[in-house]
Structure formats: C-alpha cells, structure tokens
Automatic annotation (TrEMBL):
InterPro entries: DNA_glyclase_Znf_dom_DNA_BS, FPG_cat, FPG_Glyclase, FPG_N, H2TH_FPG, Ribosomal_uS13-like_H2TH, Znf_DNA_glyclase/AP_lyase, Znf_FPG/IleRS. It comes from Candidatus Litorirhabdus singularis. CDD domains: EcFpg-like_N. This is Formamidopyrimidine-DNA glycosylase. Monomer. The gene is mutM.
Length: 271
DNA sequence: ATGCGGACCTGTTAGC
DNA sequence: TGCTAACAGGTCCGCA
C-alpha cells in the first residue's frame, strides 16, 4: 500500500477528520515499531490540537500546538479513520482519539513503519533533514538530476530510489518511470544525458501524478475503511509482468534483481 | 562520498 | 495437503 500515492491518499483521507481537533487520548498497544513509539506520544500529544497535516516524501507530519507527530507507514502500514469505536484487531498498534469522536488507528503487520514525536521544525529532524526534493514540485528538474548524477556509477534505478536524491520513488514507480522514459534500469546514472533526464523527470511526474489520481478512488470509501485492492494494477506496464510481452514491442520483459529489488524492463524499448 | 549488504518484521505464495 | 523457502509496495545503518 504505502507508495507515495497511497501516503498522499491517506493524508487527504485523514485531514478532514483530524485537522483542527484536539487529541483526547492516545492508546499504544504495541510500542515495537521500527523505533519504539516514544512515551512523549502518550504524554504530550493528548490535549494538543492538530493543525495542518503535511506529507514529506512518504512521511506524514501532524503539526500540533505542542510538537509534531511523524508517521511512516513502512511497507505494510495503514492509518484509518474510524467514526465509532471498533474492537481493535491484530496489528492495530496505536489509536489516537480525537475530540470529534473520531479515531485514527495505526495498523502495521510488519512493523517497518514508525510513529515519532518531535519538537521544533520537523524538517530539521534527522529523518527528514537529508531528504531530496519532492518529485511533483518545480525544483525536481532534469538539470538537478543530471548534475547530481555526474560521476555516479550506481544504476539509474538505484539512483532514483535514493531518498537523498529524490523522495517518494519506490520500486513500482521506479520500474514504471524507467519504462516510460525508455531508459534501461541497469544504466549507470552518471552516463545518462540531460536530454534523457528530461524524459525521465517527465515520466516520474506523470506516473506519480496519475497514481495519485487513482488513489482518489480509494479516497471515497476511506472512512468506511475497506481494503484497497490494486486499483492501478491494470495500468502497470512492467512491474509484476516479468516474462510477459512488452505492450509496445511484444518482446518478453526481462526480470532481474537490482539491490535485492525486483526489476523488470524491456531490452528492446529501454536502453 | 559512494555503494553495497544486512537488518528490522509478518504474511502470502511458490515449489517441493 | 503440508512444510519450507522465497519474496513483498521501505529505508536506515554500518562497513568497505
């Protein structure tokens, strides 16, 4: 679930039910997330009023009048809004009860996610301070990628999945964007021309942008909280299609592992 | 500075 | 059918 579009969908789904409301109570059932849920969450969050909820990369930032709650969904996490109390289920690790009687419930089977508390400017938090630009904003450009990649021997796929280079490009979208741009995922990042980076930046923006729009579908029944099946799966050109024909040229898509991540591409269309 | 591999966990699926 | 191994949408950290 949690690629950037899902995180953005979560932000949009949660915001109307959380922004402007006071936290009544925090219930932590299991502190063992990626980092232990700090006691400050229990002691400082209750009584605080939630302001704007922002997203930085795949981190969600809940500004309050006393500090900022940082949430990451890891690989399997979700944050749902419940309008009435329901029995907590397996892996429902944290509840945040609000003054409007809504409940934010954090669930994460693999516990790769985190919930942290920080004072002051959250962008200075060590998890956020070294992050690269947002892929959908103006400052993410071909020029930027081209400059940053000079001298880099790492593959272009590894390069764009590096959150210090650009945030929010996960494995699925890295595969898809490279296919759209016609660039082999194995090519060294430092040996790609500015012209081709123009194609890649456009591809990243379009792939993420349209996936966020698809996320709007899930948005509607967000509060109902049904699971979200692969609503963009049919649009994927390469991810999860290893061995199947390229939709453009018909050649069998090749699947390799790059940095322990499954990588699928067309040897004809991507160079 | 860069690049690689390991680590953190559970759930699902492929293969024997 | 049942057991085991591999793999999964993330990303931080430590080491070479």
């Amino acid at each position: 679930m949690p690629e950037l579009p899902e995180v953005e969908t979560t932000r949009c789904g949660v915001a109307p039910y959380a922004e402007g409301y006071r936290v009544e109570k925090v219930v932590v059932r299991d502190r063992r997330l990626r980092w232990p849920v700090p006691m400050e969450l229990d002691t400082q969050l209750p009584g605080s009023t939630i302001g704007e909820i922002q997203r930085r990369g795949k981190y969600l930032l809940f500004a309050t009048d006393t500090g900022t709650l940082i949430v990451h969904l890891g690989m399997s996490g979700s944050l749902r809004v419940l309008t009435e109390a329901q029995q907590p289920a397996r892996h429902d690790h944290v509840d945040i009860v609000l003054s409007n009687n809504c409940l934010l419930r954090y669930n994460d089977p693999r516990r790769f996610g985190c919930m942290l508390w920080t004072l002051g400017d959250p962008s200075e938090h060590s998890l956020l301070s070294h992050l690269g630009p947002e892929p959908l904003l103006e400052d993410f450009t071909a020029n930027y990628l081209h400059q940053r990649s000079r001298g880099r021997k790492a593959s272009i796929k590894t390069f764009i999945m590096d959150s210090q280079v650009v945030v929010g490009v996960g494995n699925i979208y890295a595969n898809e964007a490279l296919y759209r741009a016609g660039i082999s995922p194995l090519r060294a990042a430092g040996r790609i021309s500015l012209q081709r980076y123009e194609l890649l930046v456009a591809a990243i923006k379009s792939v993420l942008g349209s996936a966020i729009k698809q996320g709007g579908t899930t948005l509607r029944d967000f509060v109902g909280g049904d699971g979200q099946p692969g609503y963009f799966k049919q649009q994927l050109a390469v991810y999860d299609r290893g061995g199947q024909p390229c939709r453009s040229c018909g050649r069998e898509l090749r699947e390799v592992r790059l940095g322990q991540r499954s990588t699928v591409y067309c040897t004809v269309c991507q160079r």
